[in-house]
Design goal:
It is a single chain. By secondary structure, the protein is α+β, with helices and mostly antiparallel strands. It has two helices and four strands; from the N terminus they run βααβββ. A four-stranded mixed beta sheet has the order 1-4-3-2. Helix 1 packs antiparallel against helix 2. The two termini are 20 Å apart.
């Protein structure tokens, strides 16, 4: 499946990596690897994760307090949001599809 990061999710990913790199050397890379592992889980079973909108699914990262919102469309997984679960938890509600 093809993975697409819609703006501003692409920037949210970069911001999270940057934030964790500022906290500890290499932590941003660990966050990114965790993100890639989460994407791999989505690819294996795209409809297995909780639906929170008509078409939007949600999956939590295991080791970081982030969630990924995504939509499955034909052969694509469209990432609509990468959000910290404890900072402004409702700001991504407008991105539910």
């Amino acid at each position: 499946m093809k993975i697409l990061l819609l703006p501003p999710s692409d920037q949210e990913l970069l911001d999270a990596i940057s934030y964790y790199n500022e906290q500890q050397k290499g932590l941003g890379a660990r966050f990114y690897n965790e993100f890639l592992g989460t994407i791999s889980l989505i690819e294996k079973a795209p409809n297995a994760w909780r639906k929170i909108g008509k078409f939007t699914h949600r999956i939590n990262l295991s080791r970081f307090p982030y969630l990924v919102l995504y939509v499955v469309e034909n052969d694509k997984i469209i990432i609509t949001c990468i959000a910290h679960q404890h900072r402004k938890p409702d700001y991504y509600i407008s991105r539910l599809i």
